[in-house]
Amino acid sequence: MISIKQLKVTYHSEFSSVKAVNDISFKLSKNESVGIMGESGCGKTSVAHAIMGLLTHARVQGIIDCDSVNLLSLSRKEWQAYRWKKIAIVFQNSLDALNPVLTIGEQIAEPIQTHICIGKKDIHEQVIHLMEQVGLSPELIYQYPHQLSGGMRQRVLIAMALSCKPEYLIIDEPTSALDPETSDHILSLIKKLQYKQGFSMLMISHQLSAIQRMTDRLITLYAGQIVEDGPTQEVLSNPMHGYTRGLINASPEFFSYKDLWGFANEPPLHNDSSGCVFYSRCCQREERCQQSCPQLRSISKARKIACHKGGIETFLRAENISKTFHVKKKSIKALKNIDITIKSGEIVSLVGRSGSGKSTLAHILVNILTPDTGKVIYANLNQSKKQFCSMNGIEIVFQDPFSAINERLSILDIVCEPLNVLKWQTYDNRKAAALDCLKKVQLSTASSFIKRPVSTLSGGQRQRLAIARSLVTQPKLLIADEITSMLDASTSANIIRVLRTIQNQSGFAMLYITHDLFLARKIADKFYVMHDGEIVESGAAFNVIDHPKHPMTQLMLNSIRN
User: Fold this and answer.
1) The dihedral sign for the CA sequence 347, 352, 358, 361
2) In terms of Cα–Cα distance, which of 196, 195, 147, 191 is closest to 171?
3) Which H or E run contains 105?
4) Are 410 and 452 in contact (CB under 8 A)?
5) 376-402: b or e for each residue (b if 16 or more CB lie within 10 Å)?
6) 57, 83, 433, 475: which one has the fewest Cβ atoms less than 10 Å from its Cβ?
7) The domain spanning residue 449 has which CATH number?
8) Do 342 and 474 lie in a common domain?
9) DSSP string of 260-281?
10) Burial of 76 by CB count in 10 Å (0-12 exposed, 13-18 middle, 19+ buried)?
């Protein structure tokens, strides 16, 4: 077993020092496959090179225990007994990793000559055997790296790594520069060789589909620190750290329909603060996150999270919500035992036909209507008016921009209205906040424009104004109720793009209500499908779209496909 404890890697230059890896600990057990994912520069390759003892120009601290031997205490000569024979690596860039003046055969033979005492004839036979194992023709033995394709060079690196039959294999971005077909062949080859030889594997990749296919356990690395650790399938299907969720949402392999959004800010290159490294990009940060760095701690038998709040928190939870309207002598059951949850920073789409109860549920969630049964909980507190009459609360954008806004007020007055009600700070501060929101929704902030009455605006402009008014209180949850249903296709697309951009930058959670599945699948992380006042299907957006289970979901999808 390889056990890494409090590993730190620091690169020094003439002008500064960069802590690429900061106090990480994890284990790689026998016959286990562990994946490490994260953005470029997060420290993945530094971890791999530290384990291999290749960081001669960096300061490496901590313990790298390989079968009860601390590798960091070894001399360069002692390292030779471990490198390639006990632990081997498949490097990232095959063209840079291979020597351009040596033949393929010479390079595969090099580790064998160093670590195994056999004759030239036996070495040659071993090289031929290795080439055949990795799917290379023995005729290529006298070729040079530049004469081979990228996939062939990657196979050469695999042959070199396995030449001394190591117990542990580190694979650094094995398919990053390859086409999909070649990538598939390389991953299949590695999997087959692992099954035959039984080595443990540490796989570094930013391709989540490769990690999902190849590993048992997954570690998320951010700015040199581990922020999440758990079984691969569990982490990818139910990420518990905001950074892990962001990586998954940015992956085209998982969301083939959805517009892809990266993180709004850049990761810190120099993290000198004592607080959480993810603070500047987190959608649920609070004061204590800036004051102390959260430790990686177990939240279940198999899951670990580095977050003061224990991971992504559930911001809204509605339980057993029912509502009946009494019209003359008739009773209309609008909602029947509804349960929904919305997590911090999550985009949830509530879809269903007209009359299915979507808007009724929205009005209950924002306290316009009172449910007959059930309760609504926000951030672990029961629903109250304070959550709607405060900064950082809950806001709603209504379906009809013409009836939702007072036409007699000026544009500036409309956006300032919530702040005026709250008596928030000074008038100048309110005006500045209002102008900032107008900029965000791409409306003019010119004096001649903001003084105009709302009645002079088009439908699309009114809806942008309604969004600006909702955002001025910096809500943690925004409910958008059919906000494009009264607009043309082009205006709708622009409105959605603007709102999604703001959401990505600000990080608020959003409940997007629509009957348009095409639109919903472009933006949502999670779906709830409503029919006749009930939730008939729910789940990750891509699962509901690709594998609909309820007849109503199937009918809605078939109707838009046709």
Assistant:
1) negative
2) 191
3) helix 104-115
4) yes
5) bebbeeebeeebbeeeebbbbbbbbbe
6) 57
7) 3.40.50.300
8) yes
9) P---SSPPPSS--SSS-TTGGG
10) exposed
Among 545, 467, 465, which Cα is nearest to 503's?
Answer: 467
- Write out pLDDT tens, residues 467-497: 999 999 999 999 999 998 888 888 888 888 8
Say if residue 520 is exposed, middle or buried (CB neighbours under 10 Å; 0-12, 13-18, 19+): buried
Enclosing domain of residue 86: 2-233
Rounded Cα gap, residues 142 and 139, in angstroms: 7
Closest CA to 515 of 321, 349, 347, 318: 349
In sequence order, the β-bridge partners of residue 394 are 477
* Residue 417 scores a pLDDT above 80: yes
Whether 137 shows a pLDDT value over 60: the answer reads yes
Question: Residues 291-336: pLDDT tens digits?
Answer: 999 999 999 999 999 999 999 999 899 999 999 998 888 889 999 9
Residues 248-276 have a mean pLDDT of 72
* C-beta separation of 486 from 460 below 8 A: no
Q: Tell me what pLDDT residue 260 has.
A: 66
87 belongs to a structural domain: yes
Q: Across all residues in the chain, what is the average pLDDT?
A: 89
Residue 442 has pLDDT above 80, yes or no: yes
Instruction: Report the candidate in 361, 397, 379 with the shortest Cα–Cα distance to residue 510.
Output: 397
Q: Quote the CA–CA distance of 290 and 475 in Å, as a whole number.
A: 21
Which of 199, 233, 267 delimits the end of a domain?
Answer: 233
Whether 453 shows a pLDDT value over 80: the answer reads yes
Helix (H, G, I), strand (E, B) or coil at 24: strand
- By DSSP bridging, strand 526-531 and strand 347-352 are parallel
Q: 437 and 547: one domain?
A: yes
User: What are the backbone angles phi and psi of residue 457, rounded to the nearest 5°?
Assistant: -90, 155
Entry pTM: 0.86
pLDDT tens for 64-73 read 999 889 999 9
Query: For the chain, what is the domain count?
Result: 2
What's the sign of the alpha-carbon dihedral 457, 460, 463, 468?
A: negative
Query: Is 255 part of a structural domain of the chain?
Result: no
Closest by alpha carbon to 174, among 156, 187, 163, 161?
187
**Per-residue pLDDT tens digits for 85-131:** 899 999 988 888 899 999 999 999 998 888 887 888 899 999 999 99
Do 337 and 447 share a domain, yes or no? yes
- Of 181, 208, 233, which closes a domain? 233
Half-sphere exposure (Cβ direction) of 405: Cα atoms closer than 13 Å: 33
φ/ψ of 459, rounded to 5, equals -60, -45
Q: Give the Cα separation of 506 and 501 in Å (integer).
A: 9
- DSSP, residue by residue, 335-373: EEEEEEEEETT-EEEEEE-TTSSHHHHHHHHTTSS--SE
More confident residue, 118 or 420: 420
Asked if the structure places residue 292 within a domain, the reply is no
Instruction: Say how far apart CA 356 and CA 398 lie, in whole Å.
Output: 17
The predicted-structure confidence for 209-234, as pLDDT tens digits, reads as follows: 899 999 999 999 999 999 999 999 99
